[in-house]
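Inputs:
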Amino acid sequence: MNEPPKEGIKYVETTVRLPYHYVAGDYKALYLLALKEKRILGSKCDTTGKVFVPPIVASPESFAPCSQLVEVADRGVVTTFCVVNIPVIGRNLELPYVAASVALDGAAISIFALIQECKPQDVHMGMRVEAVWKPDGERQGDHEDIQYFRPTGEPDAPPETYINRL
Amino acid sequence: MKRPVAVVGVGQTHHTTRRSDVNIAGLVREAVDLALRDAGLEHKDIDAVIIGKAPDMLEGVCQPEQFLAGALGAHMKPLLRVHTAGSVGASTALTAVTHVASGLYERVLTVAFEKQSEGNAMWALSPNMPFVAPLVAGAGGFFAPYCRAYIARTGAPAHIGPLTVVNARDNATRNEHAHLREPMSLEDVMNTPMLWEPLRFGETCPSSDGAIAMIISSGDLAKKGPRKPAWVKSGYSYAEAMWVPGRDQVSPKAGQVCAKHVYDKAGITDPWNQIDTAEIYVPFSWFEAMWLENLGFRGVGEGWKAIDRGDTKFGAHLPINPSGGVLCSNPIGASGMIRLGEAALQVMGRAGAHQVEGAKTALGHAYGGGAQYFAMWIVSSQE
């Protein structure tokens, strides 16, 4: 028999591993392939004509199919954002960084985007930004193909053009 | 509801950074024992157990309700787990209400917990999704941009967020269960580091270990005592999808609709004047102003003004979160049920040092996910 521990054990640290395979489905597979070609695909609602990025097969608003894939611009507007000063385990982003909601031109909803090539304090709602892609030959067909977004220097978008695309 | 339902017992643990004296089962059992004692009941008086907690990744234990059956006293009884992210504590209690109101059970034990010290909530709430740039840093990182949008929309001055924390901390000094009980001045809050600008460390809820349990009873049995119950006048849960074109994350439709339904059903036409106190889910400072508007207490753009005038302080017109709220204690999965339980304690007149004088009607509210899941109830001292 082992001797019982002399000091009380309050807790032990263990690690949970949870590997999984995520099935992309047709639309997201095509979306990822298109990123390799510096193209961003969305899907268009058959009823409302609104475009979802990344593409989904049916609209959660109209419940109609989104049967058509369409290309949207690799530029858009910062609809809102925060400046992150706190690290997350397993990520190596340099702090602080700007995590923004960016509504791409032609898309009805926004995506999360990293904003760089400007100071965090210069980022603002309505700022026009564009994607900075990985160079040809390095794109793998995943979200990292877009390294980050940067200001375009265009005039700010008026709030009414993005207020409903937070 | 098909028949009257009431809360006859409430029990909660102290909420703190790390409860290393108990495991999850021990933590949950503590709340269960307190609730049963509060109701003057025993396990044999309970027909079913309904439990909720936040997603399993928070502690890394899958389906903990199964190994907790013994601690919950659920052997040979129906045991149900509810999942609605941060709002889960509230929707769990409402599930218990439904089961009693339907006539299926006479008394249901409902329990919610989180033992955040056993995992890493920020990691668990920041999963790397296959198609999305991994930029969102925890719940604060998700919600801070919507706080910014609220500020931009309403022109609210920068001190409103910190002032909300000052009020919450002041309230928590009167609540023996609260995790953060030290008062903070406006300057103290302003001087804490910016984590997710515009949200500071001081404007963020803590990570807590804690649990709460309630006994939900049929009206007939509730009248038999031993104490005055809290009558559930109405309770609803509503949800909306996360990525809907035109969805307003600052004031989500699901929250507005849910509030309207709980008010209508409870006969409330003027929540600002007819509700005596409200326990609402405010994990980050600005959400108090945002929910004051979303819940119809104040008009659009007017929520922050009520806070600025001091109308939501303890002893003022509508005390919000007299317990100190989520900003002072956040065992995530339990937090929603704590809101509902604190509302019940207020109308029972048993909230102790943080009792709102003469409280007869109270709102308990929680939200979860990407501000998509809402669950609320109105409780009253009158049947």
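Residues 5-121+209-222 of chain B form a domain with the Peroxisomal Thiolase; Chain A, domain 1 fold (CATH 3.40.47.10). Flag for discussion at group meeting.
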